[in-house]
Amino acid sequence: MATSQALTSLQHTPWFALAVVRRVPRGAFEPRPRVRSAVLRIRRREVALVDDASARAYRRFVASTFGARGATVRAALKARLSHRQMLRLARDGGFALAARPSQLTFDQWLRIFRFQEHCCSGRDPAVLVYAGERSARNSSTARFSSGVTTAVR
C-alpha cells in the first residue's frame, strides 16, 4: 500500500529506501511525546531514482511545491504546469489536484518531477533511461520509467 509522504522523506527517497520496521508506542517514552514514533530502516539504493545531475533540481522542486502558497497540489504546480498538463498528470498518476501535497505518494511526486523536468524545461528526453527495450531514437514516443509518455523531438 502506498502512503503519503512528508517533505523530509520525499527529499531522500530517490537515493535511499525508507521503511518503517515497527511502530513505538507513545507510552514507551517518558515524558510521553506528542508525536508518533517508529523504528526506521534506511538503505542506500543500488541505482538512484533521480540522477546526480538532477538531484538539486529535484530537491528544490519538492521543497518549493510543499512550501507553495495554497494548500493543494493544483496551487503548488500552477506556476510550473498548464491546467491541461496538471489534469493529465492527476489522471495518469491517480491523484486529485485538490489533494494536499503531503497526500501524494513518492511515486506520484517522482512522476510529476520527471514530467516537468523533461517535458517542460527543454531537456532532451533521448538521454533518459527508459522502461522497456525500445530505444527513444528508434521510436516516435518514449516511456519514462515513471510511466509518463512523451514525443521525442
Read across the widest sheet, the strand sequence of neighbours is: 1-2
The N- to C-terminal Cα distance equals 37 Å
Mean of all residue-level pLDDT scores: 78
The counted number of beta strands is 4
Low-confidence stretches: 122-153
Helix content: 25-40%
Biggest sheet layout: 2 strands, antiparallel
Beta-strand proportion: 15-25%
Task: Tell me the series of helices and strands, N- to C-terminal.
Answer: HEEHHHHEE
Account of the 3D structure:
The structure is a single chain. The protein contains five helices and four strands; from the N terminus they run αββααααββ. It has 153 residues and is α+β, with helices and mostly antiparallel strands. A two-stranded antiparallel sheet has the order 1-2. Strands 3-4 form a two-stranded antiparallel ribbon.
